[in-house]
Amino acid sequence: MTRKLLQGNEACVEAAIAAGVRFFAGYPITPATEITEGMANRLPQVGGVFVQMEDEIGSIAACIGASAAGAKAMSASSGPGISLMMENLGFAAISETPLVLVNVMRAGPSTGMPTLPAQGDVMQVRWGSHGDYPIIAYAPSSVRETFDLTVKAINVAEMLRTPVFILSDAVIGHMHEALDLPDASELKLIERPQPALGEQDFAPYRTGGDARVIPPMARLGDGFRIHIDSNVHNEHGFPATERHDIASALIQRLCNKVKFYADELIVVEEEQLDDADIAIFAFGVSARAALEAVELARAKGLKVGLLKAMTLWPFPEKQVEKWTRQVKAWIVPEMNLGQMVREVSLVVRGRVPVCPLNRADGRVIEPQEILSLIEKSIPA
Predict the structure, then answer these.
(1) Which of 14, 110, 212, 223 pairs with 172 at a CA distance of 20 to 30 A?
(2) pTM of the model
(3) What is the per-residue pLDDT for 276?
């Protein structure tokens, strides 16, 4: 184990290398450029391949091709670049091609404020491509969590054959913290399921109708007949666009495989909630302010706790439901005009107040702002 002082973006690079990523295609963009630079430096050292593409459309396309050839693949960008990736994100979802996309969020929309942080891409990563498809997204609030969640994202992408997002932000990406880097041999890594060489009648999407079964993914060049297509397809990968039964089964299976594994995917931390009257739901850099606000509130004798969500998709419904039965109000601070607060409200269903605290001006939410809202939200 080696102790280093790292940026969040640098921790993402080290985690990707340790978890076996050997292909990265990307295009520089603030505030994610350090990931691209880091991968350009580190991948050749471990026998990997780095390609700077002409744009973000080509970046995700190259990652899909590399993943189909058997490599663990990753790209990184920020909101404008992620927007360009969305069409090919749908291709990765329907073709069940594992890859990891890092979105170091900045203030938008459009070019917005390139150097300033935000949390406005939560719904973009979930619904940005068209149609029904599953998505998984992790949100770190520290350098340590950036490392750990990058490893988890890569493992989950390989395990479920699906694209996975890491939703960082300009503060977390650029902050420095001391980090004990484990040796790669200490990490528990997951590899995608593969068919036995020489397997007869191989079907790259055969599951027997069970969404819990993740079909094996043969590497291009291993001698299997493989057809990868963006259309609704049968178990052999060939288009079945007029078969409504196949379309229904495929789309349901794609979505259900994430639902069935949700308990393994969802990561939260619960801070001082056991006796809380007010709960804060927060993620990313806002969770850091929320934790300090809890301490400030407790010092004033106010019973406040924090549910820190490190998994945003699938949404941690069970955890919100659990604490809704106890608390008298929820507070949801986020650096947007209200995205996660809608998900919290859907679970709460009006049983207790859900109070948003929003900023969309490129500045972080301060602990004192949260404390002020806590004091206003205390039930009479």
Answers:
(1) 110
(2) 0.96
(3) 97
